Amino acid sequence: MSTADEILVLAEKFSLYFTIVIFVTGTIGNLLNFGVLTTSKRFRSNQCAFYLIIESIVDTCQLSIIFIIYILPFIYGFSPGNIFIVWCKLKNILPQVFRLLSTSMVCFAAFDQFLCTNPQCSMRRISSIQLARRLTLTAICIWTIHGIPYAIFYQIIPSNGCIITNTNLIHYYSYFYYPILHGLFPILTSCLFSLLAYRNVRHLVRRQVAVVRRRLDRQLTAMVFLRVIFFVLLLTPYTIYRIYSLNVLVSITDLGPYAVDQLIYSIMASLINLNYSTETKDEQNFSDDDLICPITQEIFRDPVRAADGFVYERDAISRWILQKGTSPLTRKPLRIDELRPDEKIRHLARRRRRSTVSYDARNDTVSLPPLRLVPRATNQISPIPVRPCQTVPRVPRVECSKKRMVKLLFLLFSICTIVGPIVGMVL
Predict the structure, then answer these.
(1) Closest alpha carbon to 109 in 230, 268, 205, 27
(2) CATH code: domain of residue 336
């Protein structure tokens, strides 16, 4: 066996084994994502979490299709796509639709975090769960229609197998789809909005936002930012390879360079498939906001976790329950006997207090002063601007012109993605 043949066999085995590993680990990671995002109280009815849930479902379907495509030739000894016309069309349509849907969810999540963390009330008002559902449904429809030319022009040619028979459509996918639609455009879009969201979330402390809401925005922004980093790192090599392959044609008759090109393609394809198995972890990184009691607005000394899932100062929440009987954040009934000490928060809070300039060990065990932030039955307003149950104030609806502008831009993008393949086939 020549060196070129050995390289071709290596490329084939690498693709097969790496696909199996990605399928197993990616499916587990996506299921963990789905379980965390659907069961955690923090992420329920959140539009960014909705995008991540849809992405986990789409990525699981994509990994399953890729696994079936690679495993069937290994089982039967031949490629069913070169014999059965239905499988020839499906194995090319489904991965493309799922690939574009997954890319859209990443861009939508980055854009949503940019809206949620924006200092302008009108921009924050645009983000909603209804908008997330509409964008997701629209993306499903657009990318399904976009894949119809695959179903029409993919045919089985006895000498070449399952290939596209329309030359203009080949030019469209070669010069627009891979470099632009599935390359530079999602990379630049996700990077831009994730960086803007990261900039916005660093200034949340300057706004009068509840501690719980601020913590949720920071966690979601960190999750999306990490997802975008993996997305860009794994998609960029494949996009560069596609642009390179368009300008440098390798003939199959020249077996040596062709074998090396196939090995490079196997590595690049494995990297982009790895993009569908990345797990977005909700890391428990404790910031200063996590170590501050939402009632007293002071660093914890005796933290306890209540039945609503939040941590409070023992003395503060005990007196709150005696006065109100409900949670200061969720308004659900609470009982004093359900309070449980949180040693991890206690240790972190003690270390945080010791790092302050005004720390005095003699005052570390002194009980807290009487509460001043507990709402009374009267309409008295606290002079301190941050209150325990503070939420983002209601703002007027966004102006019609801004809504129309967003809808117009989205409509133009949709028309371009649908008309592009049609124009390519006609020309």
Answers:
(1) 230
(2) 3.30.40.10
